[in-house]
């Protein structure tokens, strides 16, 4: 029969394809087995000898070092709806304060720019950078614009960042991430954290195969690469570069740090730094807190330590098309552009890992074809055993013992691959995901095959791997519970309280100076009372309100708060609770991160309340500066005791911090002022002298700002004289 002849001829041709595939799979399998052996030998050795002599660093040790400044670089093309939640989550969860986020936007992406503007208005450590060229350019080009803006900011604030951190807008940062970078950046030039994707539904094999691959890659492969070669490929997120590294890259690139034609600029940089002898490290640092121990379930299969490492979390594509697009970009950057840019090095060990990086261009194709072929042969074998008097097509392969042995070895290597995948996925995600990772290996093979085909087609069409355009994938930002709810604007709260009409609010927002706070403007214009503003701020912050009685303060608490700490956060110790918690007074919202930092530095439990406007500013000047203002409201025969107290509240509300005046007059940007206050914490100078010492403002401009501050701070006699004109 004709179809039998055709099938026989096809299977005969397939026979030699099987030979080639089996040999390639054997080589690749032995290669992977070598990494497995290295990992487990190193694991046992460190367990038996290293950790017994050198105890592991505890996460609380990271909190002892002074905070160095870090710049977080976030390229953002069409990231509206993502940048805001990322910045808010960082501000409320990062156990670190000395950092700035620089978001790279594009002139033709107004939606993302508008969202970043809103974020910048709420967080003084977030900066918007607008790239010179319309988007989308390459991620590297965006990062180069961001770095230029960072250096410009350093000149304005007269300080230098110790590290530069790569992140994407959809990243969820670990609370201790910057603490770990702070601990290592003086000794290491590239620090990479592991990436663990968020798991979606169990049926979502597309996004699920990412967590399988990253769990094994960042659990085993990259740590061994660092141990054997000292070279770490950046993942593009969770990567910290030392200042030395960035300056070297800029010098080497004639003023440009990142290769604008590279689709995987992060991978490229890891190799470039290693070639210059820079120190690179991949860090798996567990943070096992009491909460983590309480929530840990032993039967889940998760490792207590491995599942608590400082890492980057994010969602990866969950559709076949977007996954293929993303992975094809990685393949072009690592396999094709990587080979064109770096070829091979003089370091044989590094060449071995470069071969491992690039073999994916072959094994992605081979693995998929092998699945198809062995599926066909398996079906033929099944037919031969189930059908009466079948055609024995598999006899074409004959009794070739070497092929049978080869297939047995490959089968054993495949079984080992499945075991390794199960172990590393289960360690972080648990047994359920570990078992799901096994069928997902097949689906991952399919995605990698089509990504490889797409990458190859793009390179052939363009004629040069370096000319392939940046094909960015869209991102999701996870919902992290109610604690992420945005604080309500002060104007909205005043409307709800009936303190303002919509017309009054619109007029105030229109008329107030750009850098001036709404509450301060409403007080200055005598539109609202100090108490109304204070209660609205307290509601916004989610804490209680209290009018401070200046004469009834507990002076024994004053020494517990240093001058630098008080000025930096704008707080003052009021009283001590029954449980020995110190209650701090503040005129504005304090983030949980700031409150934790204050508690750690004071070595006391603390909480805070919002007090009447101007009270903290007055107390700070009274106790930490040379200030000869009134200490208590002097008696006045023309006013009743109640009126005297009301007049005193008006007097306090006119105490303007110099930082606010400078922001209003645009002499110092809020982002720069925020950084200056961090540095001022350890300075012995008065704040005006500190500003002059840092060279961030001219003496004439400072004198004008101080004169404006004094002009607005009404003396007690003037408050009494104008008493009838104030709203109380």
Automatic annotation (TrEMBL):
Gene that encodes it: nrfB
UniProt-listed Pfam families: Glyco_trans_2_3, MshEN
Domain Glycosyltransferase 2-like: start-end pairs: 164-382
Residues that span the membrane, as ranges: 16-41, 362-382, 402-419
Main location: membrane
Recorded topology in the membrane: Multi-pass membrane protein
Record's GO cellular component terms: membrane
The UniProt record lists the keyword Protein biosynthesis: no
Pathway: Glycan metabolism
Name by which UniProt lists this protein: Phage adsorption protein NrfB
SUPFAM superfamilies associated with the record: EspE N-terminal domain-like, Nucleotide-diphospho-sugar transferases
Domain named Type II secretion system protein GspE N-terminal: residues: 551-627
Source domain of life: Bacteria
UniProt keyword list: Glycosyltransferase, Membrane, Transferase, Transmembrane, Transmembrane helix
Lineage: Bacteria, Pseudomonadati, Pseudomonadota, Gammaproteobacteria, Alteromonadales
NCBIfam families according to UniProt: PRK14716.1-3 (NF011305), PRK15489.1 (NF012033)
Record-level Gene Ontology MF annotations: glycosyltransferase activity
Compartment(s) of residence: Membrane
